Amino acid sequence: MLRLIFQRFGSACFTLVFIAVVVFGAVELMPGNACTAYLGRDAKGAKLENCEARLGLNRPAVERFGEWAGNVLSGDLGTSVHRNKPITELVGWRLRNTIVLSAVAILFGVPLAIFLGVLAGLNRDRPLDLFLSSTSILAMTIPEFVSATLLILVFSISLGWASGVVIVGYRAPVLDLVMNSVLPAVTLALVLTAHILRMVRASVIEVLESDYVLMARLKGIPFRRIVWRHVLPNSLLPAISIIGLTMAWLLGGVVIVESVYNYPGLGRMAVDAVSDRDIPLVQAIALLICSIYILTNLATDLLALLLNPRLRTFRT
Amino acid sequence: MTALETAETGETTGGSQVRGRLRRVLSSPSGLIGIAIVVAHVLTALFGPAIVPYDFALQDADAILQPPSWAHWLGTDMLGRDVFTRTVLGGREIMLICTIATVIAMLWGSLLGILLALVGGWVDNFVMRCVDAMMSMPWILFVMIFVAALGTGTAALVPILGVSYGLSVVYLARSATLEFVAKDFVLAAQARGERRRTIILKELLPNVRDSLAVQAAMQWSWMVLGVSSLSYLGLGVAPPTPDWGLMVADSRSMMAVAPWAVIFPMAALSSLIIGANLAVDAAAKSLGVDRNARPGK
Asked: Are A283 and A27 in contact (CB under 8 A)?
């Protein structure tokens, strides 16, 4: 058990370090550097030299990576080229906002997904299941910006129920953010719900076909009791690690959804940073979002390990 | 399963088998619909320039935000450009980018995957660890770092997508190959002293061909989704070119007044992606390939 936990920690650390190397190395490998990308056509003469001196780009890459990684560990993410401010200061509030948005989407989407998934699984191949399954496939295949735009068209423009644009500033109190992020959260939750629903459905169907459920049926146990005692515990445990995996979709979707709704979070800032060709800021945000993903994945992994004794015997 | 058995002998097969497979894909109604949608889109992309009534960049100041009419079938946008013309042409660039990038991703991804499965040992272990780690990064961030450094436009997007989407191909090609590396015919080839290249090309490739074909189609539809999202964010296809994602982004501020300027490009894009997915699903089912044989991304 302890060994397994250490293993998970080890691989999470490896992933984190590897991502840091990729995020840093990708830029080094490509032609140009943060200054030539930012300055574009003006990248010559004194301007370029000033910029390179400011960012310390004239030193060898390995030395700069060491310094960058060290600073990141101590909470200093570097300086933005375009905004000329410490990145930690720029990113702080927006990180909170992104976490608020994701949390709302998760708190809304995961229970809904589990409920609908179980419902679809228990009604396998009946109209309800067919409806839920095909709707979730649709939600998964359509790009987020399309579903977001459709939601705005229907709920904001036609019905006038919710605002199509988030108008609060990035320092707004959490409650204001939550009140303003109904549509963005629903858009995010759509994809999330669709993925988890399908997993839960498959898992419920698998358990329903198992020998112990057949045995329980043959013993004449009422169906409702079979569902509560046998099907739910056994089919929901695997769903925990699935929720960890869908965080990748969520955090990728955040970038697009925040841009569509003008939500003041990390994702929109990343898009702005790419448009400004502000490489240090893009690197910092990429690293931050990846660490969130890796940490939540580790957390769900350990939780699954704790709750599901069967996983503990697997030696992988 | 007869197709699988003939493939296992390592014989290269003629056109009749390909036709048989195609017939099986087409025999499922959803596969038929999916392929019909994709073919319609490809034909529109190929012959679009010949059928559109206007120049895609023509800005008619007298016809701004016009609703659909006989003169402008799908209306006009805020600059007076014809939405029908731009919707018909809006898929050309994206389909071209995705097709080339899919070829690149499949080439390096499947070769590396097959090689890793064949070599095994610590090399395989180490490389897969790295691939795993890279795949734990949401794809859009991965792509954004490269776009920040290289800029937007077709010339930058093709290699960026080719590299980043190839990662999941490595994964799939490796796991598809692992089923065969321990089989007798591969061991026999190794015992005969065949070169590694011969084993890959003659023994392994014919067996994993079906999985790779399905994977290629899937990669293509993911890329369409990805590139259109990038275009929407202003990080994909560059502006003068008509593109669905760009059209939606351009007209979203006028959505309340002129919903047609966003609805039609969105419908075109969604129909292409849904069609491609239906076709992939049907193909995966009829070829006996597990569509979900990959970790989450």
From this structure: yes
B127 to chain A, closest Cα gap in Å: 12
Q: Does A5 touch chain B (CB under 8 A)?
A: no
* Cβ atoms of A109 and A188 closer than 8 Å: yes
Residues of A in contact with B263 (CB under 8 A): 153
Query: What token pair was written down for B22?
Result: 């195609």
Handedness of CA A77, A80, A84, A89 (dihedral sign): negative
Rg over CA atoms, chain B: 22
| Domain membership of residue A157 as a residue range | 87-279
DSSP string for chain A: -HHHHHHHHHHHHHHHHHHHHHHHHHHHHSSS-HHHHHHGGG-SHHHHHHHHHHHTTTS-HHHHHHHHHHHHHTT---B-TTT-SBHHHHHHHHHHHHHHHHHHHHHHHHHHHHHHHHHHHHTTTSHHHHHHHHHHHHHHHS-HHHHHHHHIIIIIIIS--S-SS--S-TT--HHHHHHH-HHHHHHHHHHHHHHHHHHHHHHHHHHHTSHHHHHHHHTT--HHHHIIIIIHHHHHHHHHHHHHHHHHHHHHHHHHHHHHHT--SHHHHHHHHHHTT-HHHHHHHHHHHHHHHHHHHHHHHHHHHHH-HHHHT---
Q: What are phi and psi of A251, to 5 degrees?
A: -70, -25
The per-residue pLDDT for range B250-292, each reduced to its tens digit, is: 888 888 888 888 899 999 999 999 999 888 888 888 777 765 5
Domain count, chain A: 1
Domain spanning B45-287: which superfamily?
MetI-like (1.10.3720.10)
Give residues 244 to 303 of A whose Cβ lies within 8 Å of B. 245-246, 248-249, 251-252, 255-256, 259-260, 270-271, 273-275, 277-279, 282-283, 285-286, 289-290, 293-294, 297
Q: What region does A78 belong to: left with phi over 0, alpha with psi -120 to 50, or beta?
A: left
DSSP B259-289: THHHHHHHHHHHHHHHHHHHHHHHHHHHHT-
CATH number at residue A162: 1.10.3720.10
Q: What is the pLDDT of residues B57-95, one digit of tens each?
A: 778 777 777 888 887 778 888 887 888 888 888 888 899
ipTM of the complex: 0.83
Alpha helices in B120-138 (DSSP H): 121-135
Q: How do the domains of chain B map onto residue ranges? A: 45-287
A147 located within any domain: yes
Q: Kindly provide the b/e burial profile for residues B92-120, where b requires at least 16 CB atoms within 10 angstroms of the residue's own CB.
A: bbbbebbebbbebbbeebbbbbbbbbbee
- Residue A191 contacts residue A135 (beta carbons within 8 Å): no
